Amino acid sequence: MYLSKDRNTSGGRRRRTNLALLLLIPTAILTGLVANTAGTRWGIHPSVFHGIVAFAILILSPWKQAIVRRGLGKWKASNWVSIFLLLFVLTTLGTGVTHAVGYTGRIGPLTLMQVHIGGAVAALVLTWFHYRSHPVRLIKKIDMSRRGFLRTATFAAASGIVWVSFEGTLDALDTYGGQRRFTGSHERGSFNPPSLPVTSWLDDRVQHIDRDDWSVDVDGRKLDFGDIEALGHESFDAVLDCTSAWYSQQTWTGVRLDQLLDAGGHRSIEVRSQTGYARRYPSRDIDRLWLVTHVGGEPLSPGHGYPARIVAPGRRGFWWVKWVTSIQASDLPWWIQSPFPLT
Asked: What average pLDDT is seen over the chain?
């Protein structure tokens, strides 16, 4: 009798909606973080799962709106949390869909992606507060029943179908959004260095360095610009895929790190910028990392890392350290660092 009541009453539907959102919102943020980190094409890129989860939340939004409206009939302080949670979720979904369609502009002083990520973080925080004030029993027998499984499977399939239909429509209409890279990024200024966007991680500022005063410490050896050029440069094409949701393919010229450094016996390579920004790479990747000085046949601009920067094909933009001043072999494993830089 209890199961029947939970299955058919509005209270049961509210519980299932709230429970689904409790699981989907953190999952959307987790898949978004993974998608924003991965720069190589896997069997299924995390951006696919991120999109499907986002549409699942969108499908649930009308039910959640109804729950919020019903709750406003009995006003209490915690209602503010519900209202702002709904607003931040809708903001995150709206900016995500807008980006996917093809808009890459700004909203006031912020980029569309900054609003998207900021809304997601705010939604995650409010989700915690919301479910503290509106507890949801996570598991009931009905959730584990065949009916519960079929309901969940149907909902997941519907979300997947909506995502496939959305992406198929963008492709069929030959929209700018339909031309996104598998990471979800839009093309910007490929093979046109002056159109290559200038971005830096968080609080890094563009460095203006005199080439004659610059040198790089390579495992204790000081190499100046002339020393680097004397090693013999190679030109190659590589895609810079930024976490700001744009990508650009350029022709870079530089020297592979295995020509600068012997990392044999060491576990990682740490590259540091003049700003203090640093990333650590697995030593096995040394022949796939480059210290470059030119792009498109011209010296790097200050905004793009002059005099020298790292190019790391297959990795997202925050791995491409600019204004390099130090390259060191290390016995620490490469994963002894935050997934994303913190400063």
From this structure: 87
CATH number of 189-330: 3.90.420.10
Q: Which residue do the tokens 């490469």 mark? A: 334
Burial of 175 (0-12, 13-18, 19+ CB in 10 A): middle
Phi/psi of residue 117, nearest 5 degrees: -70, -40
Which region among 131-140, 145-154, 315-324 has the lowest average model confidence (pLDDT)? 131-140
- Token pair listed for 141: 């027998």
Bridge partner residues of 272 (DSSP): 278, 326
Q: Six-digit token pair at 189?
A: 């200024």
For the stretch 156-184, pLDDT in tens is 999 999 999 999 999 998 888 889 998 88
Beta bridge partners of 288: none
What letter represents residue 27's amino acid?
Answer: T
Residue 213, burial from CB neighbour count under 10 angstroms (0-12, 13-18, 19+): exposed
CA distance 161 to 286: 42
Task: Answer whether 188's CB lies under 8 Å from 250's CB.
Answer: no
Amino acid at residue number 74: K
Calpha distance 255→132 (Å, rounded) = 55
CA 80 vs CA 14, 25, 26, 177: distances in Å: 18, 18, 20, 35
Give residue limits of the domains in the chain.
2-179, 189-330
- Dist. CA 272–CA 230, nearest whole Å: 22
| Secondary structure (3-state) at 326 | strand
